[in-house]
Design goal:
The complex is a heterotrimer.
Chain A: E1 6-8, E2 13-14, H1 15-24, H2 29-36, H3 48-58, E3 78-79, H4 80-83
Antiparallel strand pairs in A: 1-2
Chain B: E1 2-5, E2 9-11, H1 15-26, E3 32-34, E4 50-51, H2 60-79, E5 90-94, H3 100-112, E6 118-119, H4 125-128, E7 138-142, E8 146-147, H5 150-163, E9 167-169, E10 174-179, E11 191-195, E12 198-202, E13 205-207, H6 213-219, E14 227-238, E15 246-249, H7 251-257, H8 267-270, E16 276-279, E17 284-288, H9 302-315, E18 323-334, E19 341-343, E20 350-354, H10 360-377
Parallel strand pairs in B: 1-12, 2-3, 2-13, 3-9, 5-15, 13-20
Antiparallel strand pairs in B: 4-8, 5-7, 6-7, 10-11, 11-12, 14-17, 14-18, 15-16, 16-17, 19-20
Helix pairs in contact in B: 1-5, 1-10, 2-10
Chain C: E1 2-9, H1 13-24, E2 29-32, H2 61-74, E3 78-80, E4 83-88, E5 93-98, E6 101-112, E7 116-118, E8 131-133, H3 134-142, E9 151-155, H4 159-170, E10 174-180, H5 189-197, E11 202-204, E12 206-212, E13 219-224, E14 237-240, E15 243-246, E16 250-252, H6 255-260, E17 264-267, E18 272-275, E19 288-290, H7 300-317, H8 325-342
Parallel strand pairs in C: 1-2, 1-6, 2-3, 6-19, 8-15, 9-10, 9-15, 10-11
Antiparallel strand pairs in C: 4-5, 5-6, 7-16, 12-13, 13-14, 17-18
Classes of the chains: A mainly alpha, B alpha/beta, C alpha/beta.
Chain lengths: ~90, ~400, ~350
């Protein structure tokens, strides 16, 4: 059996899932995300992106040649009540 | 530069391009799909999961989406790929009494055309969808609305097409399309596509690049009136299954039919924000509902995102305790009359499947089928696509 | 919407230094930080820093933090805590969650000093409770006064690995070993010597093969690697541990820089993708500057000098100091401090101890 473990903890995406996405043609962080959901979770790839960059490197896809993923508001999770300015017990 | 031949070339790896590739492959030919970056790089990767029938106008749009929904029912089995199809049903929720007659008239016409839709009894609304604000006074319900996961849908089409002999060239940007003068009498060499890696001769080219269509058209001297309209979406953390249906605020429909009823003087309507909300199988909810004309800008704006989440909290008070984790924006390819272009062009065997607005996902299988028919048979019996032809924009008067 | 001349995001060594430098020249600087205490990682550093006197060598990290905070107060820097900056748009508007309430501030200049996060290392079992970043372990012992475990293995022999090991030893934790896949110790010799004197083995050319345990880490299995970091079969050794600390590098926090569209490039030695900055620490977007770990992982003393450079450049650009030979010389002085600090090893200087 091939070695496997979780790479993206938020979405529970494993090493083998990342590898098969690479086989299907995903070669950047953003493409891996769209193929597998790795990096779509609560931490938005803060943890797993360095691991995925290393996996991509092993397959010959160097981060020097691709742009880092887009970042969009909010860069940290925000409760909707915080966002809309309602008071809440904290 | 690799030189090669193809039975047909489809440009664009979104839900429309991959669907056409699949349905063309089914006819026995072996097309090549060319994509500038990767699958779902454009609008198909920046949308929600809704296949909403009840928002469609009666006529050709409702006709197509009804047929599309039927195809979706068996698509997962047919493609033999988990595309995340779920028949969740959908609601159009109404928070203002004055909207009720508009929606009632709207759905009456839809019923006549065969859509399974009815107004819920007021006492059933909150049973149908617990957690809805008491402000919701009426609601339409259709059990035909469904969800599909766009990222898996394109992969499903592509994998199935590959099994039938299709090829996919990712990371290939089309630099040029020309009419090959030196065909040696062979129609199969008539069009030449040059990408950063390949030169391909082919008899058939289909442009399915959404907001890229204008640029592709220009390569052949064609004016294709498709413009970007930005839709912004907010995604929340994963929560237990609380939003059972694909939900849309009636304001969207009312704004189209009786714009005078929708107040124009608040921030929401200026931004064209009407709520759309659905919960994915993963538990994330996707909240959206705006259209802005801001060119090719795919960033999200603070004010719109704020209006979107306010709206969600307004209709679903429990959402206040949910965290949002990201926002994104997609460019919906829009035409001047808001109808798609599924059409031949003045260039023989150069076809357009574009301008699907926010309906690309809803319509993908039927668009794939229509284009396969149009290309292989020269006409289409599925729906009357004369209304969707490119020349409708140029034959005025 | 509140409008200010200068917003600094992050109240760590770079951000505080940037705001102090700008404020010295009359700029009213506003510093925003998501934490409930300022200082970034400085208050976790209970050891003495190296370097020249100017960079407060011989001073313990938390004392540097106190000094910076006093200076900030002296020069009238406004520090707002519990302020999460969640977005920046192309009109220099910052979207902020200010103590749980959304607000927006518009700034003429923004200096991003967002710091870095710890890099993970993935192996079978790395998601078991007991696997944590070395920085997290350091926060537990030095801030919260809680030991992260009883029997620890440290992965990584860089300065973070060596220093945190020492802090853990001081807290009475048993550190079984420090391991590194590299063929030599990557941190400074003086730290390594301290660790060796304490009797802690430093095992080189080994990496984690897997972590084992039912509900938490009970055992770690190591495996030898060759020069290309390939695992060599049948070389496994194991230790009974309850905690695996990962000190395998830091990753610059570039979310805000990416959101506004600053150009980034990949620099593996500096931690990954980092924004391009010029000699004023200005990014590819005119009003956005960046300093500290987010422009490349280096020492705290370098972060402070970079912050000063950005702060001074903003003061000049905002017109608080005239852009003349004198101010250019002041910038040049900071730059020469930086290059001195960076001498000594390949990229960063021998500074932070």
């Amino acid at each position: 059996m091939k070695e496997d473990y979780v790479v993206c903890r938020c979405e529970e995406i494993t090493l083998q899932e990342i590898k098969s996405a690479i086989k299907q043609g995903a070669i950047t962080l953003d493409e891996i995300k769209k193929y597998t959901r790795a990096g779509m979770g609560l931490c938005q790839g803060r943890i797993c992106s360095t691991i995925i960059i290393e996996i991509l490197k092993e397959h010959g896809y160097l981060p020097q040649y691709s742009a880092p993923p887009h970042s969009r508001i909010p860069v940290r999770p925000v409760k909707i009540w915080e966002y809309i300015g309602e008071d809440q017990d904290v | 530069m690799y030189k090669r031949f193809a039975d047909a070339i489809i440009i664009g790896g979104g839900v429309t391009g991959t669907a056409i590739t699949y349905y063309l492959s089914k006819t026995g030919i072996q097309p090549i799909l060319i994509e500038e970056s990767n699958l779902n790089a454009g609008a198909s990767g920046a949308c929600d999961e809704g296949i909403v029938l009840q928002s469609k106008h009666t006529g050709i749009m409702l006709d197509m989406v009804l047929k599309s929904a039927k195809l979706y029912k068996t698509l997962e089995d047919e493609l033999n790929y988990p595309i995340g199809y779920r028949n969740v049903g959908g609601m159009i929720i109404i928070n203002e009494e004055k909207y009720i007659p508009v929606i009632e008239t709207f759905i009456k016409k839809q019923q006549q055309q065969g859509l399974n839709i009815h107004m819920l009894h007021p006492s059933d609304i909150h049973k149908q969808q617990p957690g809805l604000s008491k402000k919701v006074v009426a609601s339409a319900f259709s059990k035909d609305d469904c969800n599909v996961y766009p990222f898996k849908l394109t992969l499903g089409y592509v994998e199935a097409a590959k099994r039938l002999g299709a090829k996919v060239l990712l990371h290939n940007r089309v630099n040029n399309i020309t009419i090959n003068k030196n065909t040696l009498g062979d129609k199969r060499r008539e069009l030449r596509i040059t990408t950063n890696e390949h030169e391909i001769l082919t008899p058939i080219v289909v442009d399915a690049t959404g907001c890229g269509s204008r640029q592709i058209g220009k390569m052949l001297g064609l004016e294709i009136p498709v413009f970007p309209s930005r839709g912004q979406i907010v995604i929340t953390e994963q929560i237990p299954p609380l939003i059972k249906h694909q939900i849309m605020d009636a304001k969207f429909i009312v704004a189209k039919h009786k714009p005078q009823l929708v107040e124009k003087n608040n921030a929401l309507s200026n931004l064209n924000v009407g709520l759309t909300i659905g919960q994915a199988e993963t538990g994330n909810t996707l909240i959206g509902g705006c259209r802005e004309q801001v060119g090719y800008n795919t960033s999200t704006s603070f004010s719109t995102i704020r209006e979107i989440v306010k709206n969600a909290a307004d209709f679903f008070p429990f959402m206040k305790d949910v965290s949002i984790i990201r926002s994104f924006a997609g460019l919906r390819p829009t035409t001047p009359d808001n109808l798609p272009i599924l059409s031949q062009t003045p260039i023989p065997r150069f076809y357009i499947a574009s301008g699907l607005g926010g309906d690309g996902l809803s319509l993908s299988p039927i668009v794939g089928k229509i284009m396969a028919d149009l290309i292989m048979k020269g006409n289409c019996n599925i729906v009357d696509i004369s209304q969707l032809s490119l020349d409708r924009f140029f034959n005025i008067g | 919407m509140r409008k200010v001349n200068l917003v600094v995001v992050g109240a760590g060594p770079a951000g505080l230094s940037a705001s102090i430098e700008a404020a010295k020249h009359g700029v009213k600087a506003l510093v925003l930080d998501e934490n409930h205490k300022p200082g970034g990682q400085l208050f976790k550093q209970i050891h003495k820093f190296f370097g020249s006197e100017q960079q407060m060598a011989g001073t313990r990290g938390y004392e540097i933090g106190t000094k910076l905070l006093n200076l900030a107060k002296e020069y009238g820097v406004e520090i707002k805590l519990n302020n999460r900056v969640i977005g920046i748009d192309d009109h220099n508007t910052l979207a902020i969650i200010d103590n749980h309430k959304y607000s927006e501030i518009r700034a003429k200049k923004i200096i991003l000093c967002c710091g870095a996060t710890e890099k993970p290392l993935a192996f079978p079992g790395w998601t078991l409770p007991g696997v944590m970043g070395a920085g997290a372990a350091q926060t537990l012992v030095n801030i919260h006064r809680v030991v992260p475990g009883e029997k620890i293995i440290m992965v990584g022999s860089g300065n973070v690995g060596l220093i945190v090991t020492y802090h853990l030893l001081q807290a009475g934790v048993k550190v079984k070993a420090i391991i590194d896949a590299s063929h030599k110790i990557t941190g400074y010799g003086v730290h390594a010597a301290k660790i060796k004197r304490a009797g802690i083995p430093i095992i080189l050319r080994y990496t984690v093969n897997r972590a084992m345990g039912t509900n938490q880490v009970e055992k770690v299995e190591l495996i030898q690697v060759d020069k290309s970091f390939n695992k060599i079969p049948c070389t496994q050794i194991s230790f009974d541990v309850d905690t695996i600390c990962l000190a395998v590098g830091l990753s610059p926090s570039t979310e805000l820089a990416r959101m506004i569209g600053c150009k980034l490039y990949y620099h593996p030695k500096l931690g990954g993708y980092i924004p391009m900055v010029n000699q004023y620490m200005q990014t590819t977007i005119e009003d956005i500057y960046a300093a500290g770990d987010m422009t490349g992982i280096e020492e705290a003393s370098i972060a402070m000098e970079e912050g000063r450079l950005a702060g001074l450049a903003c003061a000049i650009s905002l017109g608080y100091i005239s852009d003349n030979a004198q101010s250019q010389k002041a910038l040049e002085n900071i730059r020469s401090n930086l290059s001195q600090l960076r001498m000594g090893n390949g990229k960063g200087g021998i500074i932070n101890g």
